[in-house]
Description:
Elements: H1 10-41, H2 46-73, H3 82-98, H4 108-140, H5 144-175, H6 179-204, H7 209-217, H8 227-238, H9 242-272, H10 280-304, H11 307-324, H12 333-369, H13 374-402, H14 413-439, H15 445-454
Amino acid sequence: MTAPATRLSLGTKLGYATGNVGLQMQIAAMNFMLMIFYTDVALVAPAVAGAALLVGKVWDTINDPLFGWMTDRTRSRLGRHRVYLIYGAAPLAIAAAAVWMVPPGLSPWAAFLWIALTYTVFDTLMTLVQLPYQAMAANMTRDYDERTSLTAYASMGALLGFFAGSVFMPVLVRAAPDARTGYALAGSCFGLVAGVAVAVVAWRVREPAESVAEQAVRPVDADTPAMWESVRETLRTTLHNRPFLMLMGAATLVRLGLTLVQASLAYFVIYQLQGDKGDLPRFMGTLLGVVGLSLFMWKRVVDRWEKNLAYILGLVFCAAGLVALYWVGPGDQRLVTAILVVVGIGMGAHWIVPFAMVPDTIDHGHMQTGERKTGMYYGLYGLMDKLARTLATVLVAGMLDVTGYVPNVAQSATALQGITLMTGILPAVCLVLAIPLLVAYPITRSRHADILERSGRH
């Protein structure tokens, strides 16, 4: 399969970025608001909600690599990846809305089953759409710097969606007659936006014509091994890609840390800072606004530095700000705003750099094996990303349960200590642990040019 090394049109980049708007709205709303919705509105015990969410991620240990393998073997005149966007947009919209509709008065077991079922269905459909969406980027261009440009546009779309999901969700909830109705209406609106955004990508973006034709006519080998044997073999070759493993390990640690912040921030603002739910949109807007502005800076940094070094610089900024949150006391809203500016600058690196690095590691794997298993790479990367998100949510739920958190009342000193640790110190530790992996990451701009030349694609 040959992907163009030429520059992509502005329309293609904008069309591709639109998908991230809808997808990241879902991710942001769930990262920031889902746990507090379950505990403070649906009145589900933190341990029950955390355990139910974990069920979906057990299935994720299978479905991400499996769906990655499926997309690598897809043969369709609509494209290897685009076909999943065409048929997945509407079901994703419906499943996303259902997550926010927990019936009142459920017993703990019924609540567990409802959350586990709705979230698992949503997560499965999200994987079927998001994985092919991300994999399209690796095949749209092989140019080292043009990938950064495409990622910058996609990151801006992701940021707009993340801003909408984190800021508008509490605004819409407060505008409704009651919180339960507000979450249901907001979830339905967000689901609709996600479905439309995915449909726009399917309409506006095409995979390279030569790769579509090649995949449509390539016959399936009559001696193809059994499905699971084939999955295992593809997985084995992917896991022999050392740069990919190093990047995935670092990005997973960063995702774990940042999701701890996102899942804890609402609790931190309401209980430690002693603000109210109306303060959440302002703090989230500050954080994400700074992230958005910093993307332009990080694009320039990546154009001049190696990608791994730019990523490390961002993590240092972010970790320093998170550590400072430990000393925030009640009413220190200006201090929190200043800290979030520092955190947002550092967080901007994570929004752009690793997503520009993944395709480079796929090129390295292509050089090693002579085969381009784009779907499997993104399947594994997505698996670890979602496991990190879920582990963070479960850790927050466990901390709340262990420290005696009680919803909608002033918290004990022990509960406040747990909330503060989950918002600042522990996330910073995760970010710092990622730095040695990035220091050792071997793909530079010159090394990537050599990889393309050796694989016969330059």
